[in-house]
Amino acid sequence: MTGKRSLWGSKAGFLLAAIGSAVGLGNIWRFGYMAYENGGGAFLVPYVVALILAGIPLMILEYTLGHREKASPPLAFARIDRRWETIGWWMPVVAFFGITLFYAAVIGWCMNYFVFSFNQAWGTDTGDFFMNTFLQVSDSPFELGGIRWPILAGTVLTWIISWSICYREVNHGIEKASMVFMPLLVVLTFVLVGWSMQLPGAWEAIKENYLTARWEKINPFTAAGSKVWVAAFGQIFFTLSLGFGIMITYASYLPKKTDIVGNALITSVLNCLYSFITGFAVFGTIGFMAASKGVPFAEAIKSGPGLAFVVYPEAINQLPAGQTIFGLLFFLVLIMAGLSSAISLIEAFCCSLIDKFDFSRKKTVSVVCVAGCLGSVVFTTRAGLWILDIVDHFVNNYGLVAGGIFECLLVGWVLKAAIARRHVDQVGGVKLHKGWEILVKFVTPAILIVVIGFALYSELSGNYGDYSTKALLCLGVGWLVGALVISFFLMLYPWGGAKLDCEHEPE
Ligand code: PHE
Ligand code: NA
């Protein structure tokens, strides 16, 4: 790096940025549905076990790696062993091409719906509006069928906002933005939760569908129950933004004396708490809608985009008062949760390029954002929803989890878990228990391998989402392999100067 690596201005700034990355669309539109499908209140058991056995240890690991090497993923990996650099690139490259490009488009959808909220432009048939009027979806992933201009407008705006945040040094850009986004997000979320919970029928639905524990569903010795456990581990990764090198990057800007364990605990626990609390809003709102339309709850609830863009508008239509404000509030929450995650994805990729090529931050971020915006255009076409769904499936089930396995092997075996742990203890704060070494070396990677095995098995037993095999191979497998090829070429380029040497304190 030319000049000194910039640092977070404060401990709170770092934490808010890290939590901002973790708390994203997934907390709002994925967690609640997962809980509902997988045992209601009982789902908290596999979820918390996954948090303890994989989430927190990996969060500590990513923080340690970034902090010890003061580096983005490729540089951190290369400093430990040059041969691992390809993997160090693969994580931010997969994240950028596999998540950021469509994340920006989805935030663009949210911006459109924010505007629609003013007069409930989605009309009475919200499902038909979303698919046929708004997205105008085509018949297959290969039928692009032209650009949807309102979506493109929202997507471009998302890129401009992200650019204007990331192009400043982290302590001015991302830190300041997080200091605004996160408190606002918390306040608005609480308003939304409070409002939803007092709607007629809300509390009954919450109790019945969200909190009641259906223990038989999580019995790991049944076929269905074991899938619940695997799903919990998959979700923990995604929800904590692990496996993409984001937390490595954010931790590389931490000052020398840092409480790594404390920060990892706070980030992980607050993220999961946010999901749990938001669940009250989701179940309350859907419960109210189901009750007022007289439909069963099971028919009303959806996951992902269907929840935000079909079910929520439908529920808003039923509100006795304050429809506009409720809509604005909900979509603003989504936009803020989304933006604070998007900037972390962009930062991890840009920081990697800056570390390797010594480009200036302003130029790198500008070029990356223009290129990213062009890449996002694919997701603003009429095939956008399909491509997004396939890419998301493969990146989450394989890319992310594979990234986690590699990290465990690198830190656990190549660097040696004991050295990493000594680093954590040396730089201050809560001491790291020796059990962490066992988790990182054996337990966590073993669990993650099982998770990938399950995913592969169900992949082979039927095409995901009924897409054609060609679509799955090109867009899913192709995306991951393409990222690997790009990473390999990035690795070949030599590191300038003495960059691979990092001065470590004696450990
Ligand atoms: N953690 C985010 C969520 O729960 C998703 C995400 C993953 C964002 C990785 C950035 C990077 O929605
Ligand atoms: Na999350």
TrEMBL record:
<protein>
    <recommendedName>
        <fullName>Transporter</fullName>
    </recommendedName>
</protein>
<dbReference type="InterPro" id="IPR000175">
    <property type="entry name" value="Na/ntran_symport"/>
</dbReference>
<feature type="transmembrane region" description="Helical">
    <location>
        <begin position="44"/>
        <end position="66"/>
    </location>
</feature>
<keyword id="KW-0472">Membrane</keyword>
<feature type="transmembrane region" description="Helical">
    <location>
        <begin position="439"/>
        <end position="458"/>
    </location>
</feature>
<feature type="transmembrane region" description="Helical">
    <location>
        <begin position="265"/>
        <end position="290"/>
    </location>
</feature>
<comment type="similarity">
    <text>Belongs to the sodium:neurotransmitter symporter (SNF) (TC 2.A.22) family.</text>
</comment>
<feature type="transmembrane region" description="Helical">
    <location>
        <begin position="325"/>
        <end position="353"/>
    </location>
</feature>
<feature type="transmembrane region" description="Helical">
    <location>
        <begin position="12"/>
        <end position="32"/>
    </location>
</feature>
<dbReference type="InterPro" id="IPR037272">
    <property type="entry name" value="SNS_sf"/>
</dbReference>
<feature type="transmembrane region" description="Helical">
    <location>
        <begin position="365"/>
        <end position="388"/>
    </location>
</feature>
<dbReference type="GO" id="GO:0005886">
    <property type="term" value="C:plasma membrane"/>
</dbReference>
<feature type="transmembrane region" description="Helical">
    <location>
        <begin position="228"/>
        <end position="253"/>
    </location>
</feature>
<dbReference type="GO" id="GO:0035725">
    <property type="term" value="P:sodium ion transmembrane transport"/>
</dbReference>
<keyword id="KW-0769">Symport</keyword>
<keyword id="KW-0813">Transport</keyword>
<dbReference type="GO" id="GO:0015293">
    <property type="term" value="F:symporter activity"/>
</dbReference>
<feature type="transmembrane region" description="Helical">
    <location>
        <begin position="147"/>
        <end position="167"/>
    </location>
</feature>
<feature type="transmembrane region" description="Helical">
    <location>
        <begin position="470"/>
        <end position="493"/>
    </location>
</feature>
<keyword id="KW-1133">Transmembrane helix</keyword>
<feature type="transmembrane region" description="Helical">
    <location>
        <begin position="400"/>
        <end position="419"/>
    </location>
</feature>
<feature type="transmembrane region" description="Helical">
    <location>
        <begin position="179"/>
        <end position="197"/>
    </location>
</feature>
<dbReference type="Pfam" id="PF00209">
    <property type="entry name" value="SNF"/>
</dbReference>
<keyword id="KW-0812">Transmembrane</keyword>
<feature type="transmembrane region" description="Helical">
    <location>
        <begin position="87"/>
        <end position="115"/>
    </location>
</feature>
